[in-house]
Each structure stands twice: as structure tokens, then as C-alpha cells.
């Protein structure tokens, strides 16, 4: 019975996906998609595996996902792989996870299909991880393809604090007094110092695993984003799930806070 169901799915799902693609209006697709790749550990637990197996399964789903984005003309993708809070995990779990992140970032860079841009507090990361992220960015700097923000050691509050710190340092070097800065400071000044400076804010933020919270992801940039929460754990997130998220986004009436 199980093999029969799998055979039916192999026939039905491609046709269903093709219909979903036809239903997507090209002028209502997001330019920037942020993804919270959640559920790797719970996927592993359900499968009777250790956490590292879940993280490896999640890493294996990243390249296919970027291919789906490429296919649909999405220009910017932000992938949250590791938060600043995650850095407090037990060493026996954190070390393998960092190694998996280093491997997947190196593999993505080697494909030379996407431009890798690390976002996060790289100074909090082990030297080997930070070096891998910087090398991937350098190796793909001239690649014309989807811009992929790899959020590692990332936290929304930390990003805003870093942006304000950078802004103050810039004006201090220019000789601007605190009083003068206070009279001119606005949101755009801070946005110019975010990790994603110069990029469009995310139109759509997707979180997998059924959790319905941001957890600090792109706090500043997501003020006017649309959100989509998917029940599937990240390793099980399929193309059809992504197409459903895009369909839900396309029919929404975006009001941008108005």
C-alpha cells in the first residue's frame, strides 16, 4: 500500500505543482524571501536520529530551495541558519552544527549559481566558521544570480545594536556632536548600517515547523513583510509547500502598515 501511495504521489504532485505555477501572477511574486529553517532537530527526533542528522537533512534541502527561487525569478533570499541564541547550545551539538554550516556554505559557493552574503555577528563565531563565510562571499562576489544572505550568528536585536554602533562611530569620526546627530537621525540612517543595507526588505517571511513567531528574525526589515507559517519541518519542506506559500502571498492585499 505504501509503495502504491508513493507511485500516486509521483504522478499527481508534478501536475499539481505545474498548476500552482500557472496560477502564480508574475507581477505579484516577492522580490525578497526570508526563511526561518526550523524543525531540523524535531525531524531528527521523529526519525530516531541524532540532532546532527536533522541538520544534515536540512542542509541538503537548501540548494533545491534556492533552485526553486531561481526558477521563479526571486532576486534575494535570506536563510536563517544559526541565531545568536543558538551559540549557547551545548558544545557537543554546536560543533557538528557549525561544521555542517561550513560544509553547506562551501558547497553553495562551489556551485557558482548564487552570490553568498554572510549576515550576522561574525565576531561571535569560531574563526574557522567566520573564515568559511568570508571566503564564500569573496568567491561568489561576481556571480550573477540570486543574492543569498546566509544568517549565521544572527539576531535581530544584535543587528540593530550593531547598526546604531556603526552609525555613532561614523559620525564620531566625522566630528558630529551627539546634539547634531539627534536633530538629523531618522530610520533611514539606521537602515544604512544594517547587515542587509542596500537590499530590498523581505516581502515574504516563511517559517517552517509550525512555530508562529519571529524569534528575532529580520526585526527591522520585516516591519511590512507578509508571513507564512508552514507545518512541515524544514527537511521535509517541498517545492509544493513553497508554491503554496507564494500563492498565499500573491492573493494578499499588502497595505505596508497603512
From TrEMBL:
Record function comment: Catalyzes the condensation of isopentenyl diphosphate (IPP) with allylic pyrophosphates generating different type of terpenoids.
Natural source organism: uncultured Nocardioidaceae bacterium
EC number: 2.5.1.-
InterPro entries membership: UPP_synth-like, UPP_synth-like_sf
The protein's name in its UniProt record: Isoprenyl transferase
Cellular component per GO, a single term: plasma membrane
Cofactor(s), by name: Mg(2+)
Keyword set, alphabetical order: Magnesium, Metal-binding, Transferase
MF (Gene Ontology): ditrans,polycis-polyprenyl diphosphate synthase [(2E,6E)-farnesyl diphosphate specific] activity; magnesium ion binding; Z-farnesyl diphosphate synthase activity
CDD domains: Cis_IPPS
Known partners and oligomeric status: Homodimer.
Cofactor binding notes: Binds 2 magnesium ions per subunit.
Superkingdom, natural source: Bacteria
Residues that, per the record, bind Mg(2+): 38, 226
Active-site residue numbers: 38, 86 (proton acceptor)
A GO biological process held by the record: polyprenol biosynthetic process
Similarity annotation: Belongs to the UPP synthase family. Z-FPP synthase subfamily.
Pfam family, one: Prenyltransf
Positions that bind substrate: 39-43, 55, 83-85, 89, 207
Amino acid at each position: 500500500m505504501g509503495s502504491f501511495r508513493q507511485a500516486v504521489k509521483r504522478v499527481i504532485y508534478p501536475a499539481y505543482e505545474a498548476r500552482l505555477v500557472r496560477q502564480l501572477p508574475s507581477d505579484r511574486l516577492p522580490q525578497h524571501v526570508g526563511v526561518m529553517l526550523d524543525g531540523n532537530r524535531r525531524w531528527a527526533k521523529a526519525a530516531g536520529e541524532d540532532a546532527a542528522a536533522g541538520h544534515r537533512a536540512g542542509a541538503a534541502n537548501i540548494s533545491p530551495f534556492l533552485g526553486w527561487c531561481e526558477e521563479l525569478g526571486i532576486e534575494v533570499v535570506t536563510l536563517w541558519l544559526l541565531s545568536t541564541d543558538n551559540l549557547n547550545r551545548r558544545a557537543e551539538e554546536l560543533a557538528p552544527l557549525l561544521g555542517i554550516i561550513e560544509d553547506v556554505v562551501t558547497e553553495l559557493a562551489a556551485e557558482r549559481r548564487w552570490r553568498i552574503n554572510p549576515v550576522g555577528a561574525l565576531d561571535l563565531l569560531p574563526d574557522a566558521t567566520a573564515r568559511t563565510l568570508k571566503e564564500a562571499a569573496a568567491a561568489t562576489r561576481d556571480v550573477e544570480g540570486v543574492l543569498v544572505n546566509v544568517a549565521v550568528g544572527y539576531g535581530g536585536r544584535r543587528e540593530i545594536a550593531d547598526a546604531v554602533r556603526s552609525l555613532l562611530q561614523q559620525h564620531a569620526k566625522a566630528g558630529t556632536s551627539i546634539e547634531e546627530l539627534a536633530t538629523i537621525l531618522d530610520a533611514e540612517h539606521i537602515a544604512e548600517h544594517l547587515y542587509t543595507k542596500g537590499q530590498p526588505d523581505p516581502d515574504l517571511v516563511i517559517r517552517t515547523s509550525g512555530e508562529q513567531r519571529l524569534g528575532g528574525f529580520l526585526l527591522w526589515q520585516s516591519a511590512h513583510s507578509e508571513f507564512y507559517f508552514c507545518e512541515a519541518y524544514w527537511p521535509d519542506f517541498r517545492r509544493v509547500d513553497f508554491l503554496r506559500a507564494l500563492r498565499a502571498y500573491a492573493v494578499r492585499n499588502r497595505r505596508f502598515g497603512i
